[in-house]
Write a sequence for this structure.
């Protein structure tokens, strides 16, 4: 959802900003731009395409200056064009800014300013903000920004420079993430803290309704009325080395291979003597947990599918009333939320706008809230407070892989812990599941060792018109996630269905060019799923079966089989998802897609 | 799911069976066949393709006889071929039968019989039944059938003739529908009672675990141990004329146009003096309704989407804990179901196997059960007991249209009635909604009058690679149903998403050949949905907006607009779905698809 980088210091700003933008590219990459101030003049270069294209243009230009701002874009309002790329400059050339978010009343502001004779040059919502600033700026940056925050409605992280202010960069935030950092004689701001890791690990996460002034000497913070306040920095526990892809051709493949470790790390410190123990993270008492009559899982995209898996796992552990909701729907429906609700919000980045707003709603209604996120100190973490942090490390590939696995690990532990506090988890079940969870990393490694087989299978099916993914019960959520992966990186239409639901409509699409990926673990639903496989075969669909390694009978139905190791039935989603990630990866690679930065997508979705 | 017709009497059986099969064709039409007995010999003709192809073959053959059975097939086990078509005859030519359902242990029976030297000729599960019957038949039909019912596992409606029994047809049922009828000197059996309407309106719906012997004199009924029992006939309230499509080129179009009447009929007798009153159908007391802490909606396909709409409507009426579940998943998950649960099952045919099994489960767990169905006396109706019957009349088009509208009408009334009994519905809200519901038929007629506009729009988009349908809140369920219609009859990949969820993955697919149908009513979510439209436009997707007629602003975003009349916000699904049905219809027509009998599909889905 757009990435922002700002710098002020003693070095050449363009170089640092271009480096920073490259680290933000996963957030949007349909166009990019940069602006610096030198001698009272704003210089700017913009382009469609990647940051690398921008870097070439910058290299050819004489582009020096020690403060600057940059932007990599994921288009919302206005098509992808150089004109619509950021930074945007006011018509009077006095103000320049970059923006992440959406200004909802842009059309109205524009109409108003045009009536006052100000000419607009782009189709973006952002231009309304910069033109408004140019219109009200009278030498007092803070005063102008305060006015702006009162005029615009929507979500924004803004980084602003004024032509006559060579010693400061200004930022303002509401709803979109922004982090500010300071090292000796240098100030920074960025959408993603990983872009600052090589300069400093002590950062300030900006809060909503906050303005910052960044100078070479330090950072000052104000609220939207302009009043100053103190703010403590936070120490980042990630390492700059984590953001390199090493030997792997793509971050996505690297991250797929990290999953055995990620599961092991997520279990670490949360298991003691074959028992689950989350007491150091969750201050829950047994009495309290009795009070929660219902559990709401709220998330988007891959995180939503992780909750779908978790719900089915948890249902086997105790008598839980669970609903899993898409965050953008949860917010606006009239779902009863009250003090008897435990609401669990799952977001890799901790910045997902839809999820954040849903969390605020639930909190207001008196629900007990908890967040599962991969980013300590992210907005949702700070606002919700109670959290389980997944230690997956930075995920750079836009298509989530290792964070899905980390999330289902954390959620399984969470479900067990809750069932245990309520007295619903027998010691025998606890031992059985903990032991099975400890075996998961080894099982995932086994699947990863079949990478070449999966690659070969993907090569055979890379020309398919599309795919259906089917599964029943615990096999359905990984089917959803497998279809999503394929959509995201191969641009093929893949849709997941509960296997029993295909015959109620979608089966009409099946023919020999539309394969069906069937998740058919050897469990109580095997026969039913095989019946659905036969229905698909009767329509000549090629079948790719994800089957359990002991299942020889599946060979009667298809020769395209990926075998996964046996697990306890509840943990099936763990082993099912890995081959589907690899399958999507190799289909996309065969089709020549840009795997780490699929078109149209952005990783951390901070607009609604 | 396969259609069966059987006849014994004084006329030429083939003619009556072919007529009956034509009325069953909506249930499956990939192949068809017929068998008669004449002079102790079984004659048979089978073919791939439609009943009309079978009729041509029969016309050319010398095919006389006064008892016979016929079948039109929707393939489950075994591809579509003449060999796999029914009827199936035992290798010793003594028994012939047709079957609807699935025999789950077919492979095992086959292995067993092959070991005893019996040669199999097809890939079907059904052949195991007929070969087994041939193997055990010793001149006692009932005894052989009793043995068969003990040997086979799965779901079946079987109609059986024995070479040496010219005066009787036998049937057995477990899980698949079958209706038996008798007129003077003639006996009938069929999957669908509408096939019997022109001969008799007094019929016996067969129950599970029931065997029938049909003769020219009457019908006798037995249980699976062979013991006889009395059974009362039921009077059908449909009319044979309802099963003609009149001037319309397709049943689907006729049924789309029936919707204003269907809504009016569904309201009839359930509204009195601006108040909802379901007391003559539902014996509910206010005290009882207080006890139901949660509501489960369970259904498949279009009926499932009707419940998704109903859930969102009901949430606005009172403090309801509602979950909507796909029947094939509900059955096998560990969702808590208890005496505090009101479980509502929705099935057009009342024969949907998945839904029926889910209803049995909920009943066993102590839930209060209720069924919404279009077929009085259908299996689910008989088993659940408490019901609201939608008076939509027979729906012949395989893609459901008028029954969806009837279902949401009934469910809206149901929600209001429940809220009222609980004291949660204010008299003002009740009046407002009743008055708005009474206006719905007129509003639907207004939309239908725009048919030519919608047809023109469909013509422009008939070559699209696929479609996404997006909507938020009350606009999401009609988006789901619109996408399903398009999938079913045009074979295009259409998928619905909550509008806010597109950016979390599926947006990767968008480009100028993948249009987005956006449901964007003028309500509190208009701005948010328009933001999602802009995101799609930025990826060059053509936008088709389903907008509210007063909404001039939508013209800024697209020129492809279908305007729907304003309604009370809760009732938006009623007006949204009609243009989507017509859009799907005309896309399919433009693409030359067989609209009333789309490939691979069957109307009444009586297998799992």
């Amino acid at each position: 959802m757009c990435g922002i980088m700002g710098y002020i210091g003693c070095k050449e700003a363009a170089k640092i900003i271009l480096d920073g933008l490259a680290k933000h590219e996963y957030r949007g990459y349909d166009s990019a731009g940069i602006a610096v101030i030198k001698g009272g003049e704003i210089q700017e270069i913009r382009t469609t395409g990647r940051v690398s294209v921008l870097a070439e243009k910058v290299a050819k230009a004489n582009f020096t200056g020690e403060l600057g701002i940059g932007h990599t874009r994921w288009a919302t309002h206005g098509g992808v064009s150089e004109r619509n790329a950021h930074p945007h400059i006011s018509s009077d050339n006095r103000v320049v800014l970059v923006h992440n978010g959406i200004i909802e009343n842009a059309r109205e502001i524009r109409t108003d300013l045009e009536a006052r004779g100000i000419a607009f040059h782009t189709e973006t919502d952002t231009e309304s903000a910069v033109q408004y600033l140019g219109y009200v700026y009278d030498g007092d940056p803070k005063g102008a920004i305060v006015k702006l925050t009162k005029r615009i409605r929507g979500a924004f992280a803004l980084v602003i420079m004024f032509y006559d202010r060579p010693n400061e960069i200004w930022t303002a935030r509401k709803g979109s993430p922004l982090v500010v950092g300071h090292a000796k004689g240098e100030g920074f701001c960025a959408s993603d803290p990983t872009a600052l890791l090589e300069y400093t690990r002590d950062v300030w996460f900006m809060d909503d309704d906050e303005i910052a002034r960044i100078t070479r000497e330090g950072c000052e913070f104000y609220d939207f009325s302009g009043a100053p306040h103190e703010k403590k920095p936070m120490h980042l526990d990630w390492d700059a080395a984590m953001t390199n892809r090493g030997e792997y051709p793509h971050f996505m493949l690297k991250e797929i291979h990290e999953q055995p470790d990620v599961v092991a790390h997520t279990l670490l410190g949360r298991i003691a003597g074959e028992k689950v123990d989350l007491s150091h993270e969750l201050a829950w008492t047994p009495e309290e947990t009795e009070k929660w009559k219902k559990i709401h899982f709220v998330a988007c995209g891959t995180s939503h599918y992780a909750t779908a898996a978790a719900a089915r796992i948890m249902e086997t552990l105790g008598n839980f009333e669970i609903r899993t909701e898409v965050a953008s729907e949860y917010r606006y429906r009239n779902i009863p939320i009250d003090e008897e609700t435990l609401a669990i919000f799952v977001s890799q980045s901790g910045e997902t706008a839809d999820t954040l707003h849903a969390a605020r709603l639930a909190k207001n209604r008196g629900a007990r809230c908890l967040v599962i996120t991969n980013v300590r100190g992210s907005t949702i973490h700070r606002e919700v407070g109670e959290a389980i942090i997944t230690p997956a490390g930075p995920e750079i590939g836009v298509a989530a892989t290792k964070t899905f696995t980390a999330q289902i690990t954390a959620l399984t532990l969470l479900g067990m812990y809750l069932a245990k506090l309520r007295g619903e988890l027998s010691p025998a079940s606890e031992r059985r599941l903990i032991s099975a969870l400890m075996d998961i990393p080894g099982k995932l490694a086994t699947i990863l060792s079949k990478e070449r087989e999966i690659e070969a299978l993907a090569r055979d099916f890379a020309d398919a018109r599309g795919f259906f993914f089917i599964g029943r019960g615990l096999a359905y959520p990984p089917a959803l996630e497998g279809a999503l992966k394929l959509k995201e990186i191969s641009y093929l239409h893949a849709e997941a269905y509960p296997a029993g639901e295909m015959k109620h409509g979608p089966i009409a699409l099946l023919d020999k060019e539309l394969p069906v990926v069937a998740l058919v673990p050897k469990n109580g639903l095997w026969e039913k799923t095989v019946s659905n496989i036969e229905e698909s075969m009767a329509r000549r669909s090629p079948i790719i079966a994800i089957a359990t390694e002991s299942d020889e009978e599946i060979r009667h139905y298809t020769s395209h089989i990926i075998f996964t190791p046996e697990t306890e039935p509840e943990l099936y989603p763990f082993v099912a998802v890995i081959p589907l990630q690899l399958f999507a990866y190799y289909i996309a690679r065969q089709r020549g897609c840009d795997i780490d930065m699929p078109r149209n997508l952005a990783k951390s979705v901070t607009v609604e």
Remarks:
- Chain A touches chain B through 76 residues (CB under 8 Å).
- The longest strand of chain A covers residues 95-103.
- The domain at 3-238 of chain A is CATH 3.60.20.10 (Glutamine Phosphoribosylpyrophosphate, subunit 1, domain 1).
